[in-house]
Amino acid sequence: MAYHRGVLRPGDPLPASEAESVVVCGFIACDLRPFNPLIASLPRLLHIPSTGVGHWVAQLLDQAVAESRGRRAGSAVVLERVSEVVFIDAARQYLESLPEDALSWLAALRDRHVGRVISLLHEMPAEPWTVDELGQRVGLSRSALHERFVQLVGLPPMQYLTNWRMQLGAGLLRNGEAKVAAVAQEIGYDSEAAFSRAFKRAVGIPPAAWRKEQRRA
Asked: Which CATH class is domain 159-216?
């Protein structure tokens, strides 16, 4: 749809070179609950100036417009991937714009100690991690790691691990058919009872009830 020289023209594409503004709308879905540190670290409205956007992003957006208009086979998959890549680039631009003394999960990724700990927890969530073990991996004492992690992320390393396990567990429950006991084992819990207690503290209801609720929705 174009609005050109005072005339609204539904279905009439206007050359971008003649437009004062070009608006491309997209959508990307994500799980906010029970724990999404990335989304929690981003502002509600994120504006990236055009001067900070790479040429390849503009080409991707042009391709997204073409796919949206063409409705070719596989267009939905292409548009989904374009949305993901553009979102990742926007988050990266925002991260690079943060001041050196910023305190947030995104800012913590830049810290060579805390960022590495977060990577370890995400890569191997089922490991029986302790703060001592994590400190040894990144070259910090237990107390120094705990203090630095809390300062940047806002919660202790083991609490972060629990929250991340709940996020992974929620995804497995919602999208798969595995029994609760199998989900518990996959994310690092020795027993279904221990996982159920942790999940209920985080979400408010037991895993099985949460799965049923999500599928009804």
From this structure: mainly alpha
